[in-house]
Specification:
The complex is a heterotetramer, with 2 copies of chain A and 2 copies of chain B. By secondary structure, chain A is α+β, with helices and mostly antiparallel strands. Helix content of chain A is about 20%, strand content about 30%. In chain A, strands 2-1-5-3-4 form a 5-stranded mixed sheet. Chain A is globular, with a radius of gyration of 14 Å. In chain B, α2 (about 50-70) runs antiparallel to α3 (about 100-115). The chains are: A alpha+beta, B alpha+beta.
Chain lengths: ~90, ~170, ~170, ~90
């Protein structure tokens, strides 16, 4: 069987509020090797300066809908990592 | 199409007018205004920020859910930006032919907003410090919640003593 | 001294302002407005009348009870005279540091008002007839209630299917 | 023992809404032989034209506070007979 090179997925990652302060940016494009999950991107963020302060399982939204960290990613997805909500 | 976020002062009268009708005699409102204290500290003002497109999507879902579950019409608006003490950050209006439904739906919408809508606030204290609300040491706060989050009922996530976030209703929908 | 009855249009903004404070960030309101239908008939307008001194005394008791039971400030006003469709007959505002107390107290006050405060309304129908609400054939209606009236909880007396009146909470106080 | 003539009590009776329509007046002064109760005044009202349409035990308020029909009366009391309430 021919071996296929794993495709690279590019996703846009958004950070807000305290998480943006912690990592020092509020938006970044990351390329990960597919197939990949939300958790894989979180691991990438944790390797960045300040990223060790993210909680083990932060709230995440994929394309405007909340998801768990095992949700699979597609190229072009928008993944938002959400600090504790404080509306109202 | 309704817009749920605004940077302008909230206009309760306009929201009321948008859902009043001669068939719906019962009107309930909730206003959340900026308090001058939090956790024993004197607050000078608040700064709200939001993940805007998701706020719009999530608010639309909350309103649609309430309007399908009860015989009500809902108006909902959240303000972001800098707010002074006493100014309203959020307004909910529910109108119905029956006051029971108007009360229950209004309460439901504000609880769901607090639990599901991505808005954050930074408190500016009298001692000069500035802090994101709910983000104490951010290591423990804001975790994805696995387990029986949906059983917590109407307890607002912002009020959970341990600072963790529940998304029970969201995960159900 | 607060006056609870008025013959002028209700001013929600003024009522809000009377109980807002920087310590009480949660505000709930209830407005009861004139519906265009009742019991399947088209209503043109309402005429409210009252036993004025008792309305004042009873409203003061209801507000004092709520303010001692919860950490809230209450504004309450009822309009009498002729009201057109869509106009507000009653307004309740509750402010508190906590939204749970604001919701519960607001609901409590409107339920107690409906059960205890001597106000009557006459509906003017599209077919030209005029009728006192709740006084169907007055023989059966409006009886002193003996027994477990106090167990009825928050069920409004105006909504009891048999048209009888309960005064449970009143008898307890 | 000397026999004492029973004193006469004068009370003001107020009627509202449908009850005022039924009896044709909204206020009357009635004198009753003491000791007397709210129920005694209601019996007097029932003997008036239209009074037979009052319910067996209408809601009553004595001096602005709701009472049962066995409540005793004093001279100068204000007794209000209240049709079913319809506020709000």
């Amino acid at each position: 069987m021919p071996s296929t090179a794993a495709p690279a997925l590019t996703v846009r990652v958004l950070l807000f509020a305290s998480y943006a302060d912690t990592l020092g940016f509020d938006s970044v494009e990351l390329s990960v090797t597919g197939p990949a999950t939300v958790g894989d991107v979180l691991d990438r963020l944790r390797a960045l300066p300040g990223g060790e302060r993210l909680p083990p399982k932060p709230l995440c939204a994929l394309n405007l809908t909340q998801v768990r960290s095992d949700a699979p990613l597609s190229g072009g997805d928008e993944l938002a990592v959400l600090p504790p909500l404080a509306g109202g | 199409m309704t817009v749920y976020l605004t940077e302008s002062p909230l206009d309760l009268g306009a929201l009321l007018a948008s859902v009043q009708s001669p068939e719906r005699g019962a009107i309930t409102c909730f206003l959340g205004t900026v308090r001058n204290h939090h956790g024993g500290r004197k607050v000078l003002r608040l700064e709200y920020s939001a993940y805007r497109p998701m706020v719009e999507a999530e608010c639309a879902r909350i309103v649609a859910e309430a309007e399908s579950r009860w015989q009500v019409a809902i108006a909902l608006r959240h303000r972001i930006g800098r707010l002074e003490i006493g100014e309203a950050a959020v307004a909910v209006v529910a109108t119905s032919a029956h006051r029971d439904e108007a009360f229950v739906a209004c309460r439901h919408v504000i609880e769901e907003l607090k639990r599901r809508v991505p808005i954050w606030k930074r408190e500016v204290y009298a001692d000069g410090t500035v802090e994101w609300v709910g983000a104490k040491g951010s290591e423990a706060a804001g975790q994805e919640h696995s387990g029986a989050a949906g059983q917590r009922g109407s307890k607002g996530q912002a009020e959970l003593a341990d600072g963790r976030t529940t998304f029970g209703a969201w995960q159900r929908s």
